[in-house]
Amino acid sequence: MSLNNKIALVTGGSRGLGKNTALRLAQNGSDVIVTYRKEKEAAEKIVSEITGMGKKAAALQLDVGDIGALDAFVADVSQAVSDKWNRNHIDILVNNAGIIAIEMIVETSEETFDRLMNIHLKGVYFLTQKLLPKMAEGGHIVNFSSGLARFSFPGYSAYACMKGAVEVFTRYLAKELGDRKITANVVAPGPVATDMNKDRFESDPQMVEMLSSLTALDRVGQVDDIGGVVAFLCSDEAGWVNGQRIEVSGGMIL
Fold first, then answer.
1. For this structure, is 146 an active site residue?
2. Tally of domains in the chain
3. Which domain holds residue 206?
4. In CATH, what number is assigned to the domain containing residue 43?
5. pTM, to two decimals
6. Beta-sheet strand order (sheet of 90-95)
7. Which of the following is catalytic: 14, 30, 146, 249?
8. Is residue 78 flagged as an active site residue?
């Protein structure tokens, strides 16, 4: 699997699944632009790791939930691609950036709902829209969803609603971008021990045991379980995979 001469943009690439995805793309030959919201130092460390592999990389600031700032961000992407690669397009877009909110339906505030929607749905929709003119023919889009869009646990209704909508959006992307030979797919992780939920997992080993018991491979996921699947979907080997939802959960609730 080779991604040589490709430029990938990974949102939320400074930590967790985004970091793992950025590194796996680079390991398979791609140059990478990572975005960060606040953790500039962490993003620059990822850039250093990627350049240490002999690939080019850049870090750009982005709050994907700030819809009004997306035009300026796309201009930053254009400038970075021109300055560092002497090109005018990217080949791969991975919409990974996100937050989590755990609230029962009766407790969910409009503010929480809107924040989740802006980051996980509206931001993904309009960032992708604004980057489409910068996508190369034959490129690849991978959107992150969640196993929670298929199975249900109390407290995740708003988050899961956004992810379910992203899955619908992805199918429409695949349909509408077919004439440009751009594929669009979804990766839907199950429970993963990332820094985003590290404290919950460490403070509640019984929950981890319960989640493991619901999974055919009898454990929760690790970040290294995810990025390679994204890299595969961005490769020529996966060129005939389009409009699909790939759940990466170890076989949860089968």
1. yes
2. 1
3. 7-248
4. 3.40.50.720
5. 0.97
6. 57-61, 31-36, 7-10, 90-95, 135-144, 183-189, 245-248
7. 146
8. no
